[in-house]
User: What shape does this take?
Amino acid sequence: MKEALLYEKLENNSVRCFLCNHNCQIKEGSSGICRVRKNIKGKLYSLIYGKPCALHIDPIEKKPFYHFFPGSFAFSLATFGCNFKCGFCQNWQISQEYSLKDIESQQEILPSEVVELALKNKCKSISYTYTEPTVFFEYALEIARLSKEKGLYNNFVTNGYMTKEALDMIKPYLDAANVDLKFFKENSYRKNCKANLEPVKESITYMRKLGIWVEVTTLVIPDENDSEEELTQLARFLAGVDKNIIWHVSKFHPDYQYLNYNVTSESTLRKAQDIGYKAGLNYVYVGNVWGWGNDTICHNCKKLLIKREYFSILEYNLKGNRCPYCNTVIPGLF
Ligand code: SF4
Assistant: This one.
């Protein structure tokens, strides 16, 4: 166990955690909404520091990041836990349905060992992913700090619910974030995730202000968030923050508690992509489909820059960060 960052002590041995926007007030002996931060005798502890439950080497496209060192590999890790309760979670076994025993049984891997593994496996970056990296913040922060010293990059795949204080703290080491913007209605966030929309919007805006590279993913769920009106509002919000934010609209597959929903149709995904472009975004990709919607086309001259198949790069035409045909700077890290 590691004493938590970003909390304050209150009366009667209670604490208030301000790592994420739930701002849990936690009595002695209890845990926060994420279940992995516990008040023990008036001090808040992370129960998952140094206890990853998943370690993989993934193509960066799988996160997905399409404008962050395309074709590179990310050393990817997660611990148990999440501060959301999404019924459609694709990693629910490790985000929701775990026990304290599961945490205790994980092998301890120190931050320096994670960095060594990433270097040994020739990864360009470390991805904090699969579950919500905010809830293992202390562990992620230390890995990110050490990895920067070794020339590695860091990225979060996140629900964007962390506080500004958390972002300020990790900013020197965090190069990029893929933020899930799951809905654009407050009541949908409440009903489906037991969270609120506004802090997610604020995080996206604040990350761009801090200079963190941002890509956004929306899992398009039939009858939940696939109306033209909602997708248009969402895309307009992103374009208003920065038209160079990359938007990934992804195909939904039934999972966890959402087994009675349909798979997203191809026509809905094409509609979402069109909506993104109409709203003014420069790059809109379609996730979980193959054969279309994944190539990078110069937003200025419309020539092919990167051809992708699954998570592989078949053709790569960028010269540094510029289009070789019209010399336009392509947004992202290349
Ligand atoms: S990180 Fe966990 S304990 Fe802290 S505010 Fe969020 S849900 Fe609550």
The chain has two domains: 2-46, 54-316. The first helix runs from residue 92 to 95. The chain has a mean pLDDT of 97. The longest strand covers residues 213-220.
